Structure formats: structure tokens, C-alpha cells
Amino acid sequence: MTTTTSHKATSYQRSAWAFLGPGAAVVVLVLYLPVLYTVYLSFTTYSGLGSPVFAGVANYVALVQDPVFVTSLVNTLIWVAGSLLIPVGIGLVVAYLSFGLKGAAWLRVPFLIPYALSGVAVGIVFGFVLQNGGALSQALAFLHLPGSETRWLQEAPLNTVVMILAASWQGIGVNALLFTVGLQSIPKEPLEAARVDGASGWRLFRFMVWPLLRPSTTIVVGLSIVNSLKTFDIVQAMTQGGPNRVSETLGVSMYRDTFSNSDYGLGSAVAIFLSIITVAASVIYVRRQLAIGDSSGDTASKDA
């Protein structure tokens, strides 16, 4: 009996590995090996020709001492803050105000259409609008309004702010959709009981809807943090990190160092640094949300 059971378990494990093996091999080949190679390159001097020459931590020391890297890091943090305040905040407002309205799905369609565009396409469109003498400047001049002479994409940090607004135009819709899904998953009974007790408007949202919306909020904010840390396409399409690299993000710096300057070692160091802060930010945020959820559950249990 025991031998038969052991044989069946072994056969089952072999079958499982037969199915898992190809997928695991692809993940290792496409994901893990390039990461390990990038880590190796970050400790070398390599121009793409010849063989990499080991340089220790020289690339990381150069990053810390490079004022452009500091500017890129600051711009990336501005992107994180802007992405949380604007597309996430407005997406939540759109989802909450349209939830339950007749034809609400059609009301959200105009916000979702920009999400179908690529980041490069959005960057090109807004670059045409915001360039010197572009559509916005011409419209302001025609209406005799101030700002027609403003160099939207040439002055820092104004160029970073307007690029965040462009990215927000694209991202509001999907955030509203995710929040709408979260609102649909909230049980109706607690909300109806709160309304009977006199809660409405801001009080209803603050003390009932917002806590019950926490799982969706965790997902939306987590995705926003990760995506904003990796910002590349819109910046590259609108300013290429200029002028004089004042609007670069870490993603743009990584691309410039690696492919434009052919300094694969320094570019790899930027990539590893960006990966570390992305993973760290994600882990810290998720653990904090889980801790808040556990404390809320303990409080509810004690009250019960």
C-alpha cells in the first residue's frame, strides 16, 4: 500500500515537473539570466566592444558623484508623487462620482480611450501641443491670455510637471476602472446601514467606502508607484531628458548611458539601482498595507 502510494506520488511529481519545466526554463532564460548579467556588467567597464573589464564599485561611485544622477533621482521621485496625486486621485473621484449613475459605463469611456494609446504616442501629441510656438502657445496668444511665451518643455521643473500631466491624461481612465471594480465588490448592506444612521457625502466615503476600498487602493497605488519609478517613454518622446538633462528620470538616464554613450557598465549600475528601489518601494508599501489591514482586523475583533 505504502509502495503504491509512493509510486503514485513520484509519478505525479514527474508529471508536474514535465508541465512546469518548460515554463520555468523560459523564466530563467528570459528574466533571471539577464538580471544576473546586468549585475555583472554593473561592476565592469564595457563599451559593447571587446570583453568587459572588471572595475569593482567604480560605476556606483560615479553614480553617487554625478549631479545628473541626483537630478534624475529627484525627477523620478517627483514622478512618483505626481502619479499618486493626479491620475490616482482623479481616477478615484471619477469612479466614485460615476458609480451607480445610469449610463456610468459610457461616462467613463472618454477617460479610458487615452489608455489605448502608447506612451510614445501620448508624448508626441503633447510634445506638439507644448513645444515652443506650439498649439497651446498659439491658442493662448490668440485669446490674449498670459503664458503664450512660456517655454513649457524647456524650463525645469515645469517640463517635468507638464509631462506628469500628459501621463495623467493617459492613466486616469484605467485607475477609475480599477476603483470602479473595487466599488462594485463592496457589500451593499454596510452602506445602506450607514445611510440609515445618517451618514452621507464625505462622512460616508471617509468612514465606510474608503476602508472597504482598501484592497483596490493597494493594487492601484502599488502599480502607480512601480510604473512611475520606471517612467521612460513619455519623457523620451517629449524632451529626451533635456534640455541639458534637467528632465531626465532614472529610466532615461539608464537608456542614455547604455545606448547613447555606450557605457554599458554605468547603464547597468543605473538599472540595478532602479530595480532595487522599485522592489524596495513595492515591498515596503505592501507590508505597510498588510500591517494596517491586520491592525484594523484586530480592532474590529476587539470591538466585537
Automatic annotation (TrEMBL):
The chain crosses the membrane at residues 16-40, 77-99, 111-130, 161-183, 204-226, 264-286. PROSITE patterns: ABC_TM1 (PS50928). It is a multi-pass membrane protein. Residues 73-285 form the ABC transmembrane type-1 domain. It comes from Frondihabitans sucicola. This is Permease. InterPro entries: ABC_transporter_permease, MetI-like, MetI-like_sf. Coiled coil: none annotated. It is found in: Cell membrane. Gene3D superfamilies: MetI-like. Keywords: Cell membrane, Membrane, Transmembrane, Transmembrane helix, Transport. Its main location: membrane. It comes from the Bacteria.
